[in-house]
Design goal:
With 115 residues, the protein is mainly beta. Helices cover 0% and strands 53% of the residues. The chain is built from no helices and eleven strands. Strands 2, 4, 5, 6, 9, 10 and 11 form a seven-stranded mixed beta sheet that branches.
Length: 115
């Protein structure tokens, strides 16, 4: 089992920034893919960004140039730096990892952007 705990969400004005963190209960050095998704009530969960163990990153078009995903293997932590936030970024944000062919998810952290 792998536990993930997100933090860093909150209320921010449009144009502001937030940094999300996701602490993983085991070493992440052996985990290839780590990602952030987001979901609004009544909507499907959507991909935001992912990062591979080698450092390669991938972003949804809607966040390219504004968000940056990173990982710190020494701290077993995944990050999402969110800049130039827009009202449409308001969602609950979840981190996820694939380990031993299983997908593990955190409980999420709420991000609310006021316009």
């Amino acid at each position: 089992q792998v536990q993930l705990v997100e933090s860093g969400g909150g209320l921010v004005q449009a144009g502001g920034s937030l940094r999300l963190s996701c602490v993983v209960s085991r070493s992440i050095s052996g985990i290839d893919v780590m990602a952030w998704y987001r979901q609004a009530p009544g909507k499907q969960r959507e991909f935001v960004a992912d990062i591979r163990s080698g450092g390669r990153t991938n972003y949804a078009d809607s966040v390219k140039g504004r968000f940056a995903i990173s990982r710190d293997n020494a701290k077993n932590t995944l990050y999402l730096q969110m800049n130039s936030l827009k009202s449409e970024d308001t969602d609950r944000y979840y981190c996820t990892v694939v380990f031993n062919r299983d997908n593990f998810w955190g409980q999420g952290t709420q991000v609310t952007v006021s316009s």
